[in-house]
Every structure is written in structure tokens, then in C-alpha cells.
Design brief:
mainly alpha, about 130 residues
Amino acid sequence: MCIRDSYKPPPMQVIHIPKLSKPENPIMVNELKNLCHSCSPDYQAKLRIELQKRVFQPGGSLPTMTLEEFAEKEMERMRITEEQTKAAQLRSKEEEEEDSDREEIDAKRTKKARDWDDWKDDHEKGAGNKLKNR
């Protein structure tokens, strides 16, 4: 499924504007007075402001937070990152102390692996108890 398939455009708003005598001409703000003879001047002003709000819409998305909010969130992220860094450094110091114990264990494992390798060098493959040499 593509992102385009799941996209649903926002619902369209229907604005009812009375038809003029010449529908091919656009509505001019000066003609608003002619549209509404019985309307009060206050209503005409509100209508004009409403139409202006609908015309002058931003082209893109507006910011969702202020710069102060962004700075606070960024500072919080930095504080968390610093705490994690300090914790990682403490863990690495503890691991270095444990490494001395691990070195002894690794030395034993290495000696055992070398002894096994030496035994394999001395005893050829297939030279065991297979009744091969009769």
C-alpha cells in the first residue's frame, strides 16, 4: 500500500455567495455593499474580514511550537544524552576492573586451546582405533 493510497484530503468547505448579474466576473469587495442592502455596516465589515481571512491563507504548514519550547526540548534531549554518556563511562570503568578477572579466564582458555591444537598436530586424523592397520 502506497502512502498516496492512504492520503485523504481534508473535506472541502462550501461557501455560498449569491450570484451576481454577471457570473463570469469575480466578486469585488466594493460589490459586497450591493449584495446585502438590508445588512448592517457592522455585518458587512465582518463579512469582508471573513472573506479576507479565507483568501490570505498560508501556503505551507505553520510552526507547531515556539522557539522557546523547541529550545527547552532540545536542552532536555542534551541532558539525557549527557547522562547516558556518563553512565556508559562508568560502565566501561567497571568493565576494565572486571577485565583483570577475565584475563585469567582467557589465559586458561587459550592454554587449553593450544594444548588441544598440539595434540591434533601429534595425532593424525584417522589414526585412532578404527582397525585400519590390520
